[in-house]
Amino acid sequence: MRFGEITRMSWRDVDLTKSVVRLRDTKNGDDRTVPLSGAMNLLIRNLGPMADGAVWGSEQAVRSAWRRTRDNAVAAAEAAGDGALAASMADLRFHDLRHEATSRLFEDTELSMMEIAMITGHKTLAMLRHYTHLRAHRLVGKMGPMPDALHLAEVVTGVIENRALPMSDWKESERRGQWKLLSGSAALLRAAVCSKPIRAIAGDLGISDATIHKACARLGVDKPPQGYWLRSSAA
Is the CB of residue 186 less than 8 Å from the CB of residue 221? Predict the structure, then answer.
């Protein structure tokens, strides 16, 4: 979504039951309805509406949050001695995320070109192509299954879940390797606990529920609220 579309999101236009949001008066003059990912649905649900009915803060607040995030990433790259990465991120724009997201819709999903255009709001395929920057290494998964050890982290996050061996068939060392990846990354652990109940993840990996809860606390990962999975199954 464009920056303006995000900052103008109103709670009255969000339908969490259908997991969609209605965008009004977009840049090209049309309204459109776009799907929300499971993680975004959960995030918005937990936030609740602001006093003025907005989903996010003011435009200035969102800009400030973006700049802090970018500056922190640059500082982390510099501290790690990766000057090239720091330089490449220094002038990163919020709008660059739209290019990245469009590319990932092609690389990481089975959505058709027309479905992606409906989500992004591009009226012509020429403009959609302008926003799409495909990388060959991210298309490898679509060429067929990869060996287990090369995609353990992606299995839990659901990127190529249907192409992987069931976790029950994994060797003990592979399960330990999976947990090592998850417990070392807040992003991967967050994606995992938002994808299925913690008890199910613990059973898949052969570890205790408490171990996952402790890792979430250590990495600052917010878990779905109590009763979330029961409500989801009922829906």
Answer: yes
